[in-house]
Amino acid sequence: MNVLNLNRLTLLAFAMAGLSACNQAAAPAEASTLLVAQVASQTGEEAAAVLPRMTVYKTPTCGCCGAWVDHMREAGFVLDVHDMNDLGPVKQRLGVPYTKGSCHTAEVGGYLVEGHIPAADIKRLLEEKPDARGLVLPGMPLGSPGMEVPDGHQQPYTVELVHHDGTTEPFAQH
Protein backbone atom coordinates (compact mmCIF):
# COMPACT_ATOMS: atom_id res chain seq x y z
CA MET A 1 0.00 0.00 0.00
CA ASN A 2 1.53 3.35 -0.92
CA VAL A 3 1.93 6.23 1.55
CA LEU A 4 -0.94 8.28 0.09
CA ASN A 5 -3.43 5.45 0.46
CA LEU A 6 -2.11 4.60 3.93
CA ASN A 7 -2.60 8.25 4.93
CA ARG A 8 -6.17 8.17 3.55
CA LEU A 9 -6.93 5.05 5.56
CA THR A 10 -5.39 6.55 8.72
CA LEU A 11 -7.49 9.71 8.32
CA LEU A 12 -10.57 7.58 7.76
CA ALA A 13 -9.89 5.62 10.96
CA PHE A 14 -9.51 8.87 12.92
CA ALA A 15 -12.72 10.21 11.37
CA MET A 16 -14.54 7.03 12.35
CA ALA A 17 -13.27 7.39 15.92
CA GLY A 18 -14.34 11.04 15.99
CA LEU A 19 -17.82 10.21 14.71
CA SER A 20 -18.15 7.52 17.34
CA ALA A 21 -17.21 9.98 20.08
CA CYS A 22 -19.63 12.61 18.77
CA ASN A 23 -22.47 10.10 18.75
CA GLN A 24 -21.60 8.94 22.28
CA ALA A 25 -21.46 5.37 20.98
CA ALA A 26 -18.45 3.40 19.92
CA ALA A 27 -18.64 1.82 16.48
CA PRO A 28 -17.94 -1.91 16.54
CA ALA A 29 -14.38 -2.76 15.51
CA GLU A 30 -15.73 -4.97 12.73
CA ALA A 31 -17.61 -2.03 11.15
CA SER A 32 -14.49 0.15 11.16
CA THR A 33 -12.42 -2.63 9.64
CA LEU A 34 -15.05 -3.26 6.96
CA LEU A 35 -15.18 0.43 6.03
CA VAL A 36 -11.38 0.65 5.83
CA ALA A 37 -11.33 -2.47 3.61
CA GLN A 38 -13.97 -0.95 1.33
CA VAL A 39 -11.94 2.26 0.95
CA ALA A 40 -8.79 0.23 0.21
CA SER A 41 -10.60 -1.63 -2.58
CA GLN A 42 -11.87 1.64 -4.00
CA THR A 43 -8.29 2.96 -4.23
CA GLY A 44 -7.30 0.19 -6.62
CA GLU A 45 -5.07 -1.66 -4.15
CA GLU A 46 -7.24 -4.77 -4.29
CA ALA A 47 -7.53 -4.64 -8.10
CA ALA A 48 -3.76 -4.39 -8.50
CA ALA A 49 -3.33 -7.45 -6.29
CA VAL A 50 -5.49 -9.65 -8.53
CA LEU A 51 -4.85 -8.24 -12.01
CA PRO A 52 -1.93 -9.74 -13.90
CA ARG A 53 1.00 -7.47 -14.71
CA MET A 54 0.76 -5.86 -18.15
CA THR A 55 3.66 -5.27 -20.52
CA VAL A 56 3.20 -2.36 -22.94
CA TYR A 57 5.25 -1.69 -26.07
CA LYS A 58 5.02 1.82 -27.53
CA THR A 59 7.06 4.40 -29.38
CA PRO A 60 8.86 6.91 -27.13
CA THR A 61 7.20 10.02 -28.56
CA CYS A 62 3.55 8.91 -28.72
CA GLY A 63 1.38 11.04 -26.42
CA CYS A 64 -1.81 9.07 -26.95
CA CYS A 65 0.00 5.86 -25.96
CA GLY A 66 1.11 7.55 -22.74
CA ALA A 67 -2.49 8.60 -22.05
CA TRP A 68 -3.66 4.99 -22.58
CA VAL A 69 -0.95 3.79 -20.17
CA ASP A 70 -2.32 6.26 -17.61
CA HIS A 71 -5.85 4.87 -18.22
CA MET A 72 -4.58 1.34 -17.50
CA ARG A 73 -2.82 2.43 -14.30
CA GLU A 74 -5.93 4.27 -13.10
CA ALA A 75 -7.87 1.03 -13.68
CA GLY A 76 -5.53 -0.82 -11.33
CA PHE A 77 -3.09 -2.49 -13.73
CA VAL A 78 0.60 -2.63 -12.85
CA LEU A 79 2.60 -1.98 -16.03
CA ASP A 80 6.02 -2.55 -17.49
CA VAL A 81 6.38 -0.02 -20.33
CA HIS A 82 8.95 -0.48 -23.09
CA ASP A 83 9.64 2.37 -25.50
CA MET A 84 10.67 1.02 -28.92
CA ASN A 85 11.17 2.59 -32.32
CA ASP A 86 9.97 -0.49 -34.23
CA LEU A 87 6.95 -2.38 -32.88
CA GLY A 88 6.72 -4.64 -35.95
CA PRO A 89 8.57 -7.61 -34.42
CA VAL A 90 6.41 -7.47 -31.26
CA LYS A 91 3.19 -7.36 -33.29
CA GLN A 92 4.38 -10.24 -35.44
CA ARG A 93 5.43 -12.35 -32.42
CA LEU A 94 2.03 -11.84 -30.75
CA GLY A 95 0.06 -12.44 -33.93
CA VAL A 96 -1.60 -9.05 -34.41
CA PRO A 97 -3.56 -9.41 -37.67
CA TYR A 98 -1.95 -7.21 -40.32
CA THR A 99 -4.97 -4.94 -40.90
CA LYS A 100 -5.81 -4.61 -37.19
CA GLY A 101 -2.79 -2.68 -35.95
CA SER A 102 -2.65 0.43 -33.82
CA CYS A 103 0.03 2.58 -32.21
CA HIS A 104 0.85 0.39 -29.19
CA THR A 105 0.75 -3.28 -28.25
CA ALA A 106 0.49 -4.95 -24.86
CA GLU A 107 0.54 -8.40 -23.27
CA VAL A 108 -1.48 -9.32 -20.19
CA GLY A 109 -2.48 -12.66 -18.74
CA GLY A 110 -1.26 -14.52 -21.84
CA TYR A 111 -3.31 -12.31 -24.18
CA LEU A 112 -2.36 -9.67 -26.72
CA VAL A 113 -3.95 -6.23 -26.41
CA GLU A 114 -3.62 -4.00 -29.46
CA GLY A 115 -4.61 -0.35 -29.45
CA HIS A 116 -6.77 1.96 -27.35
CA ILE A 117 -8.94 -0.73 -25.73
CA PRO A 118 -10.83 0.33 -22.59
CA ALA A 119 -9.65 -1.22 -19.33
CA ALA A 120 -13.14 -2.64 -18.69
CA ASP A 121 -12.91 -4.73 -21.88
CA ILE A 122 -9.49 -6.07 -20.86
CA LYS A 123 -10.79 -6.97 -17.40
CA ARG A 124 -13.73 -8.78 -19.03
CA LEU A 125 -11.29 -10.71 -21.26
CA LEU A 126 -9.27 -11.74 -18.22
CA GLU A 127 -12.39 -12.78 -16.34
CA GLU A 128 -13.99 -14.76 -19.19
CA LYS A 129 -10.69 -16.32 -20.39
CA PRO A 130 -11.75 -17.15 -23.96
CA ASP A 131 -9.54 -19.48 -25.99
CA ALA A 132 -8.15 -16.68 -28.18
CA ARG A 133 -5.07 -14.57 -28.87
CA GLY A 134 -6.54 -11.42 -27.38
CA LEU A 135 -8.17 -8.13 -28.28
CA VAL A 136 -7.58 -5.53 -30.98
CA LEU A 137 -8.93 -2.08 -31.64
CA PRO A 138 -7.74 -1.11 -35.11
CA GLY A 139 -6.72 2.48 -35.72
CA MET A 140 -7.08 5.25 -33.19
CA PRO A 141 -10.79 6.09 -32.76
CA LEU A 142 -11.55 9.47 -31.22
CA GLY A 143 -12.93 9.15 -27.71
CA SER A 144 -11.30 5.79 -26.98
CA PRO A 145 -8.98 5.73 -23.92
CA GLY A 146 -5.97 7.87 -24.72
CA MET A 147 -7.73 9.45 -27.72
CA GLU A 148 -10.10 11.70 -25.80
CA VAL A 149 -10.74 15.15 -27.27
CA PRO A 150 -11.64 18.36 -25.40
CA ASP A 151 -15.19 18.55 -26.74
CA GLY A 152 -15.92 14.96 -25.63
CA HIS A 153 -16.64 13.76 -29.18
CA GLN A 154 -16.47 9.98 -29.56
CA GLN A 155 -16.47 7.92 -32.72
CA PRO A 156 -18.29 4.61 -32.45
CA TYR A 157 -15.83 1.73 -32.38
CA THR A 158 -15.71 -2.04 -31.99
CA VAL A 159 -13.16 -3.93 -29.93
CA GLU A 160 -12.53 -7.29 -31.60
CA LEU A 161 -11.58 -10.70 -30.21
CA VAL A 162 -8.72 -12.30 -32.17
CA HIS A 163 -8.95 -16.07 -32.59
CA HIS A 164 -5.87 -18.28 -32.86
CA ASP A 165 -6.27 -18.49 -36.65
CA GLY A 166 -6.15 -14.67 -36.92
CA THR A 167 -9.84 -14.16 -37.61
CA THR A 168 -11.75 -11.69 -35.48
CA GLU A 169 -15.26 -11.15 -34.15
CA PRO A 170 -16.84 -8.26 -32.24
CA PHE A 171 -16.13 -8.32 -28.50
CA ALA A 172 -17.48 -4.92 -27.37
CA GLN A 173 -19.21 -1.95 -28.99
CA HIS A 174 -18.51 1.60 -27.81
Provide an overview of this structure:
With 174 residues, the protein is an alpha/beta fold. It has helices at 3-22, 29-42, 45-50, 63-74, 88-94, 119-128, and strands at 54-58, 79-83, 104-108, 111-114, 134-136, 158-162, 168-173. It has 2 domains: 3-47, no CATH class; 52-173, Glutaredoxin, CATH 3.40.30.10. α1 packs antiparallel against α2. The model is unreliable at 1-45 (pLDDT under 50).
Number of helices: 6
CATH class of the largest domain: Alpha Beta
Order of helices and strands: HHHEHEHEEHEEE
Number of domains: 2
- Pick out the low-confidence regions: 1-45
| N-end to C-end Cα span | 33 Å
Counting copies of identical and different chains, the oligomeric state is: single chain
Note the main sheet: 7 strands, mixed
The name CATH uses for the topology of the largest domain is Glutaredoxin
Strand content: 15-25%
Which class best fits the helix and strand makeup?
alpha/beta
What radius of gyration results from the CA coordinates?
A: 20 Å
Helix coverage percent of residues? 25-40%
User: What is the strand tally?
Assistant: 7
Strand order of the largest sheet: 2-1-3-4-5-6-7
CATH architecture of the largest domain: 3-Layer(aba) Sandwich
> What is the general shape?
globular
Mean pLDDT: 79
The CATH homologous superfamily of the largest domain is termed Glutaredoxin
